[in-house]
Amino acid sequence: MTARELDAAGIRGAALRAAYTRCRRINAGGGKTYFLATRLLTPRQRPAVHALYGFARHADDIVDDLDGPQDPRGRAAALDDLEATLRRALASGRSDHPVLAALADTVARYRIDPEHFAHFMRSMRMDLRVTRYPTFEDLRAYMHGSAAVIGLQVLPVLDTVVPREEAAPHAASLGIAFQLTNFLRDVGEDLDRDRVYLPEDRLAAHGVDRELLRWCRRTGRTDRRVRAAVRDMNAFTRGIYRHAALGIPMLHPVSRPCVRTAYHCYQAILDRIEAADCAVLHRRAVVPGRQKAAVVLRGLGGLARARLRGALTGDLPRTRAPDAPADTRPGADGPPGAGPGARDAQSAAHGTAPESAP
Fold first, then answer.
1. Is this prediction's pTM over 0.85?
2. Would the N or C end of the chain have less CB density within 10 A of its end CB?
3. 160 phi and psi, to 5 degrees?
């Protein structure tokens, strides 16, 4: 974390600044595309996004890190400890934990709904015991906590030009679209952990089961039935992206280039999967660096225009110190579920909104 970003965000105190800096390092090391897109936010927004990502990655590493406790009970105990510390941090707005200190400060500054983090932890626990999802209904219950709430957590940081609850369903869909893309990209790696995140009913419609996936992984060959199933899930995911895209114009202008860049970079993974004829079991679909760079350059152009307009008009996303009075603009404060659109946000978070997807 640069001093410029911390100063712009109004973050004071050596320990708190160190916590935000640690979260930035986690982001830079673990989410290359995500971190690249974050660079397109204003300096004052970046620390909060790093804090949110840093916490999510920290929890996810407890579940999946090969260097941590290997038995489910050890991982469950580590999650118990993290959740107890998390509750105290969110209740007090501060923590001595090297990651949660930044998260608690961000939640207080942006008045992010603490319930999102309870849902997230619930999904992390599912990864310790659930290795299959019979239907998409089952999968989206998991993705509500592991992906949809991530979009809802970030939304107050991005700011909106409409009441926040109106943008919330699309933010939830974007989180789900990103995670489904990761599931398609990482089928082989997840299978090595004895997990299959693609719904069994959609696989079975093409004659695919876990044993066939294992055969493909073991032999390096891709059965035509697997190709058909992956192609179907690719098309379904693109439908969710279309629903998510409707929310980008609802964001504050200076936040749109970041989200649009992440949107195009992640969706390009689907393009790469299709270009490889849906052979995902033995090689990872990777977007070339030059293609990412081109997307980022376009984002920089949009960012420069948005910042210039904001600087001239004074219309830039605002934050507040944790103990400052709340903003009373419609939709400016309060959790996404606080207004009349709460049911819509919850619906999208559970995957209902994009039912028009193939």
1. no
2. C
3. -135, 160
